[in-house]
Amino acid sequence: MNKTELRKKYKTLRIDLSPEVIEEYSLEIANNLLKLDIWEGEFYHLFLSIAEQKEVDTEFILHILQGKDKNVVIPRTDIEHNHLINYLLTETTKIKKNRWNIPEPVDGIEILSEKIDVVFVPLLAFDKNGHRIGYGKGYYDKFLSTCKPDIIKIGLSFYEAEEAFEDVYASDIPLDYCITPKKVYRF
C-alpha cells in the first residue's frame, strides 16, 4: 500500500478505539518505554496528543519524564512557515488547541532543536524499516532534519509494523525505535 492508502486505513482503525482502550494501550506503551536505555539525556521532545484523532495519550510519558526530572520540550506549529517551534514545558506554560485541535504552548522559553536528545514522534503507521507515516504535512521530517545527528527518534503506535512502505522519500527520516503496546521495535 502507498502512504495515502495507509493513512486512510489507520485513521479508520483509530475511529473504533474506545477511550478505555486508548488509555490501556497508552499505558502499555509508556511502560514499554521504560525498557529502553534512553534516560541519560537532558531534553525530551514530546507531542501533546490530539484526543479527537485518537492518538496515543502521551500524558503517561509526560509523568515518566517529570518523575525522572527531565526537561520536557513541546512543539507549536508555525503554519505560516511550515515548521515546529519548540518550547520548554514549565509550571506556567499555557496550552491552547490550534485549528487542528493540537494542544500547543502559547509561548514560553524556546529550545533550539540542536539541544534535544530524544524525540517522541507521532505517527499513523510505520514499517519494519523504521519509516513512518504522519498526517502528510512533513512537520516532523523537517524538524528532525534540524536536530543533532545522534538524536534518538521514537515512534508511538497502537498498531504493529507494516512490512514496508512503497513510497519512501529521501526527505523521510527513519525512526530509531517504535513502541507499541505489545512490542519494542529497534531499527
Quick overview of this protein structure:
The protein contains four helices and eleven strands.
- Oligomeric state of the chains present here: single chain
Strand order of the largest sheet: 3-2-1-6-9-10-11
Number of helices: 4
Radius of gyration: 15 Å
Structural class: alpha/beta
Order of helices and strands: HHEHEEEEEEEHEEE
Distance between the termini: 21 Å
**Average pLDDT score:** 95
- Relative strand content: 15-25%
> What's the helical proportion of residues?
10-25%
Low-confidence stretches: none
* Shape by Cα distribution: globular
Largest sheet: 7 strands, mixed
Number of strands: 11
Structural features, described:
With 187 residues, this protein is α/β, with parallel strands linked by helices. Helices cover 23% and strands 23% of the residues. The chain has four helices and eleven strands; from the N terminus they run ααβαβββββββαβββ. The chain has helices spanning 3-15, 19-33, 59-67, 139-144; strands at 43-46, 71-78, 83-88, 95-97, 103-105, 118-121, 125-126, 132-133, 152-156, 177-179, 184-186. It has a seven-stranded mixed β-sheet with strand order 3-2-1-6-9-10-11. Strands 4-5 form a two-stranded antiparallel sheet. It has a two-stranded antiparallel ribbon with strand order 7-8. The longest helix is centred in the first third of the chain and has 15 residues, at 19-33. This is 5-formyltetrahydrofolate cyclo-ligase. Pfam families: 5-FTHF_cyc-lig. It catalyses: (6S)-5-formyl-5,6,7,8-tetrahydrofolate + ATP = (6R)-5,10-methenyltetrahydrofolate + ADP + phosphate. Keywords: ATP-binding, Ligase, Magnesium, Metal-binding, Nucleotide-binding.
